[in-house]
Amino acid sequence: MQSTSLQGKAALVTGSTSGIGLGIARALAQQGAHIVLNGFGAADEIKALQIALQKDFGITAIHHAADMSRPAEIAAMMQVAVEKFGAVDILVNNAGIQHVANIEDFPIDKWDAIIAINLSSAFHTTRLALPAMKEKNWGRIINIASAHGLVGSAQKSAYVAAKHGIVGFTKVTALETAQTGVTCNAICPGWVLTPLVQKQVDARAANEGISNDEAKKGLLSEKQPSGEFVTPEQLGALAVFLCSEAANQVRGAAWNMDGGWIAQ
């Protein structure tokens, strides 16, 4: 039987047309939450995602293509969500991009884009969602950080800076809502085989002249002791827990799900 623990709630998940975001959107929909998808992709593929969510879980799913680097588009998306569902009860800030280069070679436009999409967008969605959450005295804000929100890696200065920023922003949001029914936490995944990570696998395979499988093993062996990728479904289950009553006093946590990466 489908659980209805989030029945009637509305969840907005940024960067949710694939990968981690889609996994979390599906997990929340399974618990009865209506879904606002956000992200890029072919219109027919996105429409198919909406139809699948509605058919599989009996909820309403809409899509908004806001560019998460543009505050005006973010505000428009939040307004559409409110008009459709009355409020954004659950906000999952997941949108992210990556670029790899040494600091002295890092393109300024790439730095600005990563900070805007991976960090500043969460500020804009949160500032717009909080007033209604506080008024209802219930809300869940889940920021998808990364193991790189807790430790660094060479050649990822912008990404690591943004993800550390997300963890700090999570803590401040949690403190400002500590005496309300609104909670804010961060999930810090290790390697997840998303399209973003697949690009890094492909690049590694090409650069080293090895197979894709060998490139995956190499990537995992450097950081993730379990030797296995974290899955979007596992992250979705954690997001559902953070939305539950059992997590009412989980506030400001940076919860790593990383196959042992941070334990080293």
TrEMBL record:
Among InterPro entries, the record links this protein to: 3-OHbutyrate_DH, NAD(P)-bd_dom_sf, Sc_DH/Rdtase_CS, SDR, SDR_fam
Q: Which Gene3D superfamilies match?
A: NAD(P)-binding Rossmann-like Domain (3.40.50.720)
Q: By what name is this protein known?
A: 3-hydroxybutyrate dehydrogenase
Q: Which family does it belong to?
A: Belongs to the short-chain dehydrogenases/reductases (SDR) family.
Alphabetical list of PANTHER family matching this protein: 3-OXOACYL-(ACYL-CARRIER-PROTEIN) REDUCTASE (PTHR42879), 3-OXOACYL-[ACYL-CARRIER-PROTEIN] REDUCTASE FABG (PTHR42879:SF2)
Identify the domain of life. Answer: Bacteria
